[in-house]
Amino acid sequence: MVTAATTSAPLIEKHTIGYVPPEDRHGKTRDLFTLWFGGNIAPLPIVTGALGVQMFHLNLVWGIVAILVGHLVGGVLMALHSAQGPQMGIPQMIQSRAQFGSLGALLVVLIAGIMYIGFFASNIVLAGKSLHGVVDSVPVPVGIVIGALGSGIIGIIGYRFIHVLNRIGTWVLGAGIVLGFGYIFTHVQTADFLTRGSFNISGWLATVSLAALWQIAFAPYVSDYSRYLPANVPVAATFWTTYLGTVLGSSLSFIFGAVAVLATPVGMDTMDAVKLATGSIGPLMLVLFLLSVISHNALNLYGAVLSLITLIQTFAYRWIPTAKSRAILSIIILAACCFAAVGASANFIGHFVDMVLVLLVVLVPWTAINLIDFYAIHKGQYDIHSIFKVDGGIYGRYNPQALLAYAIGIAVQIPFMNTPLYVGPISEHINGADLSWLVGLLITSPLYYWLANRDTAYKRRLCSGKLANSI
């Protein structure tokens, strides 16, 4: 349904972390499909997907099966977070105050902000390499700056422009990756395309985990891009459009990376393999991926800025952040990331993937707590006024039940971890497969539900009728 807000919504977003009132709501649920489909047709998921055959030595069939299983499972969690947006009308990280308290939520907000700054920095490196691949005369450092500026402009303009670009990108990038698949399959350059690698349980589980964690990594900011939808949008519609878009787009990219690597000689860099495997259309593919990474990276900058604003506003609670504040913080983060990326090592992206795996250990129990709290305990009903109070209002500064479940959720993952910093004994016993995320979800979810239902103070608040999802 087209509303007045839909037609009159300003191109430059005026809201930051504040509640989006009904008169400013606009858009349709199908925008979520195009956002998450188009946004996932990009170099970073292609590079990540190739790891299943490069690092974990799976063959094509088992690599594809692992990729699909991981995205199908992880996409459920990601889409459940997305469905919170229209109901709450506020960014995901500010909403965490309702589960952890105004101060208790700071750790998760900080971790999310660091992770998305890492995503942004990695993507501008990929943008710089892609631009250098298209135009040899453009040095990688110059390409990094150009890519960062492009993403910065999109991120500063904000929500509506991000959606518009991804509606266009869905058709262009979707057609491009189908064309790329067609070319590779008809110009395979290796005799062992179907036979290189084999099934091994540790590699298969590791690839499933990579795909699932790719989806979970979106959880701290996915509802930021659905919060402007009208509040009466069905939860199921928000869930399914997000789920189908993110699973389809990311699965295609992951599989494309695996196919490109297997179609070229062993040992090639993934993006070099893509360029070689796509032959005469390689330059076109690189141009499309360059545009994609610039567009998609705006989401990482946007999410990082909202996380930073949330951190600052926790202490400067009288501060009302504006579009100007968002622009200034965007420029600061952009400049810092450019400086870091230009001086980074050649294996910057590899180091980034290592960092994400470590950070996700502490984000997984947050995902479990947030979803259980929203769907099983509060059932979507929150006091928005309290969320923005310095003392947390009815949610307080700290929620002991959430913090206890969170700490235990991190602790139980340690034996199952496999990161550059630490390999747990159970992970080592099963040949390095990292199942920490699955254990974290399975333990934290019922534990938090049990602890929250034992909280008599919460029950009194719930029965008092104070919890109202309104302003």
TrEMBL record:
Record's keyword terms, sorted: Membrane, Transmembrane, Transmembrane helix, Transport
Entry similarity comment: Belongs to the purine-cytosine permease (2.A.39) family.
The protein's name in its UniProt record: Cytosine permease
GO cellular component: plasma membrane
Topology in membrane: Multi-pass membrane protein
One Pfam assignment: Transp_cyt_pur
Principal location: membrane
Record-annotated membrane-spanning stretches: 33-53, 60-80, 100-126, 138-162, 168-186, 198-222, 242-264, 327-349, 355-377, 403-423, 435-452
Keyword Cytoplasm set for record: no
Subcellular location field: Membrane
Molecular function GO labels: transmembrane transporter activity
Signal sequence residues: none
Database matches in Gene3D superfamilies: Hydantoin permease
Highest taxon listed in the record's lineage: Bacteria
